[in-house]
Amino acid sequence: MSDGSSSIKMVEIENKGRALVSTKPLRAGETLLKDSPILLYSAVPDGAAAAAYCSHCFRTIAPHSVTAVSCPNCSTASPFCAPQCQSVALSTSHTPFVCQALRRLRAADSPLLHHHLDRLLQARFLVAAYNLAMLSPSHFQTLLSLQGEAFIDDASVFLHSVISSICQLSNVGEFKFSVELTAALLAKDKLNAFGLMEPFDQDKERSVRAYGIYPTASFFNHDCLPNACRFDYVDSASDFSNADIVVRVIHDLPAGREICLSYFPVNCKYSDRQRRLKEDYGFVCDCDRCKVEANWSDNEEEGEGEMDHDEDDMDEDNGDGDGDEGVDLETTDCGMDKENDDFPHAYFFVRYMCSRDNCGGTLAPLPPVDARPSMVMECNVCGSLSKCED
């Protein structure tokens, strides 16, 4: 399920909980992890938009594709990119249980008919999670072990009643079907789901096509200047591993360093970052960058955003959890010392942010070859490759 994980291990960090740290010195571009999802669910509204993606692997289905097939029970509502994908799905991600539940969610009398899309997505997640419980209790137990405390509120009670009405469950495999379990699952989804993104389009806002739960990647903590970067290649032609996510380090790191991703684009200003982290993840960030920017005025924050756009942009899952202390300036040939510069984040923005208009992606070197660092940088949003300038 996970490859490359010998480079990282899980530890407990005071006031942060479980985290992933490096087990050895790491070179820029080194792959830390290739993680497969234990469940996926669609983030696209039903209809023509949903028909554009495979219901199992979420690869784009080309218009008039000769290999595309449908679920024999859902018809065109659940397309698959090829017969092989359909065959696998019917015994895993699209079992009769899932098929029946999704058909009822789409029905004209669906209890979610007049609710916001977010409620439908949560219901899809619960269907996928309860299907996982029946097919793989061990993976379901992994899901329950992830961060997120159950909180029974009106939303969880309502969604539990929705699942009860469409699935008629009493027990789910080895687990008792209850509002407490539903609330716990919703908490895991809120804090741990990764979005599989649409391809970059310079003229459109980037959106999510599917969400996935990844058993190891879920333990990467956030930092506003991360030292690792997440890549996904959903439309690649590599069998059924196209939904895997790959995490690579941005720059050299010593053994024992915590590996952090950014949960959103790093060119977000301080106030927006703090608001999103508090609302979505329930914590206040006090990383090195936030300690500096906490004392800035709103005008200074706006200036930072302008600099970010001009020098480069940023996207989800990137950066340096401890500032840039792990950067080997001799290797990178930048000549800008973080500690002595008036703007301590300048090195990161110049070096590791994509300069393509409206991209907002993070740059990481391609994996080293024969222990030699690559001078080619890959953007984790638009996918462009660029030569690293001295």
UniProtKB/TrEMBL annotation:
Residues 298-331 have a biased composition (Acidic residues). Residues 6-264 form the SET domain. Signal peptide: none annotated. Gene3D superfamilies: 1.10.220.160, 6.10.140.2220, SET domain. PROSITE patterns: SET. SMART domains: SET. Residues 298-335 are annotated as: Disordered. CDD domains: SET_SMYD. It comes from the Eukaryota. PANTHER family: HISTONE-LYSINE N-METHYLTRANSFERASE ASHR2. This is ASH1-related protein 2. The lineage of its organism: Eukaryota, Viridiplantae, Streptophyta, Embryophyta, Tracheophyta.
